[in-house]
Request: fold
Amino acid sequence: MKRSPLELSNTNIQKRHRKARMFRLLCAGVTWLGAALLAILLIQITLDGIKWLDIQFLTSFPSRFPYKAGVKSALVGTLWLITMIAIVSIPIGVATALYLEELSHKGRIAKIVEVNIANLAGVPSIVYGIIGLAIFVRGLGFERSLVSGALTMSLLILPVIIIASREAIKTVPMSIRHAAYALGATKLQTAWAHVLPASFPGILTGVILALSRAIGETAPLIMIGALTYVAFLPEGPMDSFTALPIQIFNWVSRPQQEFHELAAGGIIVLLVVLLTMNATAIFIRHKTEKKLQ
Amino acid sequence: MSAINLLEESIVEKTAGESESIPSQTFPDEVILDIDNVSISYSGNPAVKHVSFPIAKNRITSIIGPSGCGKSTLLRSINRMNDFIDGVTVDGNFIYAGHNVYSSRIDPVEVRRNIGMVFQKPNPFPKTIYKNISWGPQINGFTGSMDELVEKSLRQAALWDEVRDRLHESALGLSGGQQQRLCIARALAMEPDILLMDEPCSALDPISTSHIEDLLFDLKSRYTIVIVTHNMQQAARISDYTAFLEMGDLIEFGITDQLFTRPNQKRTEEYVTGRFG
Ligand SMILES: Nc1ncnc2c1ncn2[C@@H]1O[C@H](COP(=O)(O)OP(=O)(O)OP(=O)(O)O)[C@@H](O)[C@H]1O
Ligand SMILES: [Mg+2]
Reply:
């Protein structure tokens, strides 16, 4: 009997289907494994920390007594820090990306800058801490202040912001730029009015990822000497400070079980701050993307 | 936004004794742009070779020729849009208002303000219909009534009736043909001296195409139009002059009727009658 080419018994096709199925299973397995590990971690932390989470925990300064201790100064310090980092790093990062992609003559210097930025993104954060200590804390005499912390962290995340923004800018179709140039627009006018708005959602994603990284970084802050025991709130950028990861680190390194649970509570607070930031970003992105449609 | 400042400068330049190509004595129309011995290459590969022909004011000039013969390259070089392509070199002169547009004293941005362009694929900004039109005049210091300008431009592009109720909706919601007419309206809002169009109808259905052809006919009294097209009938229908390019060489330039009915060159005849390419 003559076999129809569409017949399912075609062994070659069956073999390929089987392979595709196996690959899909493998991918699904790996995905679920990652998700499960994360879930276990989250559950463990929540179980440990939830009983300490209350208003008192959020509104108290650290203390020698676990039941009196809270994250007030660390939380406020983190919020200060993140705001200052955003103010410093977003304009510089986005402007650099725009310059490299849109305005510069793509000569050798641009190439060198490009390679170096990519390299900087891979430098361990402790190294930034050392730079921050040398330049901001000692060199410029900013002491162990929020300014030193924010500038150090900004250095750390600038490469990430620049790279992400450049990628976002690259996705803007050339035809839009040409349309603008053909109307007698300069490169700057085009970049400002069309390229930047069109790449905004992508840039925002990159910025939020970078800021999230900054929020969780501990090593550079320890390096520049953020305090671990702070019983006051910073009132200005020149004040000394602590931050959530420092506070968590401090609690974890104590021997008593209660402090370990407090650390879990601190982690939950940190996660909530992170999630709030991400949710805000998704919300803004959704709104702007809708406007573009 | 006009050629006037360019014109004033040109007087100075002429007294300085710079050469200006003189259009052929027999040419019946006023020349607005003279393409004079132009050669263009991409990183050393020639795409256009020693091409010369005049563009007549308030007339439609079409550029025809087989794919890859250099039509788009030539058109893009008129308003210096190929400045944005790496490795392009342009030799020769494009004399516009007494100046070579490639002269170091000329700001390419100023050239593009006066010589507008409509691209092969519609490329509206991802913004509202209104902003698509208003942005060009706005950045160029337009001071009159923007609402009026937007309406006028959309009317000229035969789009007003279709979009008057949705001016503040996204331009991406328009059909392809509407988007192309929006792009034409956007170029017209700048009131350019010359309008360059690279196969503006290639992505359009016959109805939109005939809309746009009618439109070009209407626009002739106020604008000079240079259009690249693959459609022989279209070139014959709408244009006053036609340039036929092949492999980067100008084979023939002339009055459209003559070029299509009594061409001087055998290759032209073969091409326009469809026995070739
Ligand atoms: N950006 C570019 N870089 C390098 N070479 C190019 C570029 N654009 C065009 N060319 C070359 O220049 C020549 C002319 O191309 P051009 O686009 O001007 O042709 P065309 O006549 O417009 O063709 P079509 O009718 O297919 O649009 C071709 O050989 C093409 O390969
Ligand atoms: Mg072309």
Chain B has one domain: 3-122+194-272. The first helix of chain B runs from residue 4 to 15.
